[in-house]
Design goal:
With 334 residues, the protein is of the alpha/beta class. It has an eight-stranded parallel β-barrel, surrounded by five helices. A two-stranded antiparallel ribbon has the order 1-2. α2 packs across α4 and α4 packs parallel to α5. It starts with a strand and ends in an 11-residue tail after the last helix. InterPro entries: AKR_Detox_Biosynth, NAD(P)_OxRdtase_dom_sf, NADP_OxRdtase_dom. It comes from Eisenbergiella tayi. This is Oxidoreductase.
Length: 334
């Protein structure tokens, strides 16, 4: 495994991050939720990830399934409880700010958002489920346009001062929103954001316009979620015998069929799987800290471990650009 610093911090995390959104009841509700790996399977995956050198784990307080949100954190907490240094070896990040059904935030405050009231209560609940007294990284799951940054930072500053969180990050934030957050943090003498979790793949290159240049300038890491673009850039699209695609992914595949087939041909010529080439492409960008892998079995994880060692040559990168062109060319005035 390879490691790099999380943004401008001195904390080192693995280039592959274990995504845990598939941990839950072990059953699918048919509503598009994840949570399809039961506790026993999740334990095997986490043990294997740790053995492979993956020290960065990602979760969220709403993961676990449509009807059982929070179950993922509970499963991780039960795994930590087994001991043998599991908690001490993991850089743990969770997320808050989404609606949490059946929570103690009843009435008008049981809505999405980042009020001080909600952040504190959600973090306390996450710590209880995770059976830990601190988080290395606490992230805002999505932006809140209604709550001011002074209130948001007041909440996170308190968590950092009390030792319940080391660093703060964001997810699904635009570049301008992150800059507003950083300016407010500077006024308060606070470190601010150190990581942004975002969608960035050969098929979703909008971050190249503003987000990636901004995080490079500001010393903020980028962790990629859904790196295979709902399976379109992995085994789902090209090997349906391994894992059938759902209706939504199939519709997406039909939209990009020509590009997907060109890409699959290129990967075969390279002698690599589509998933490994995709991860290698994403990790080739210096702004990218880590790629989140959300396996449903050990084989899903073992099959992409080599991606951190794949170096794509310039001619290959140009071929990928020809298949999946950048959103727009760079401005001639920059």
């Amino acid at each position: 495994m390879k490691y790099c610093r999380l943004g401008r911090t001195g904390l080192y995390v693995s280039k592959l991050c274990l995504g845990t959104a598939n941990f839950g009841t072990g059953k699918s509700s048919g509503k598009g939720d994840w949570g399809v790996v039961d506790e026993k399977g999740a334990f095997r995956i986490m043990d294997y990830a740790l053995d492979c050198g993956i020290n960065f784990f990602d979760t969220a307080n709403v993961y676990g399934g449509i009807e059982t949100r929070g179950l993922t954190e509970t499963i991780i907490g039960n795994w930590f409880k087994q001991g043998n240094g599991r908690r001490e070896k993991v850089v743990l990040g969770t997320k808050v700010g989404r609606i949490f059904e059946k929570s103690d935030l009843d009435g008008p405050n049981n809505v999405e958002g980042l009020s001080l009231y909600k952040i504190r209560r959600h973090v306390e609940a996450s710590l209880t489920r995770l059976q830990t007294d601190h988080l290395e990284l606490i992230q805002m799951h999505k932006a809140d346009p209604l709550t001011g940054w002074d209130e948001i930072w007041e909440a996170f500053e308190g968590l950092v001062r009390s030792g319940k969180a080391d660093y703060v990050g964001s997810s699904n934030h635009d570049a301008w929103q992150i800059m507003k957050a950083q300016e407010a943090a500077r006024r308060r003498g606070f470190m601010g954001l150190v990581n942004e979790q975002h969608l960035y793949t050969p098929l979703a290159r909008t971050p190249e316009l503003e987000l990636l240049p901004m995080v490079k300038d500001q010393g903020i890491g980028i962790t990629i979620f859904s790196p295979l673009f709902r399976g379109l850039l992995g085994i789902d699209a090209f090997h349906p015998e391994k894992r059938p695609m759902n209706a939504e992914s199939r519709k997406l595949f039909e939209k990009y069929r020509d590009q997907a087939e060109q890409y699959s041909k290129l990967c075969r010529e390279l002698g690599e799987t589509e998933a490994n080439v995709t991860f290698a492409w994403e990790l080739s960008r210096p702004e990218i800290t880590s790629v989140i892998v959300a396996p449903t079995c050990i084989e899903d994880l073992s099959s992409v471990l080599k991606s951190v060692d794949i170096v794509l040559q310039e001619d290959v990168l140009r071929k990928i650009d020809s298949i999946f062109p950048p959103t727009v060319e760079a401005s001639p005035y920059i």
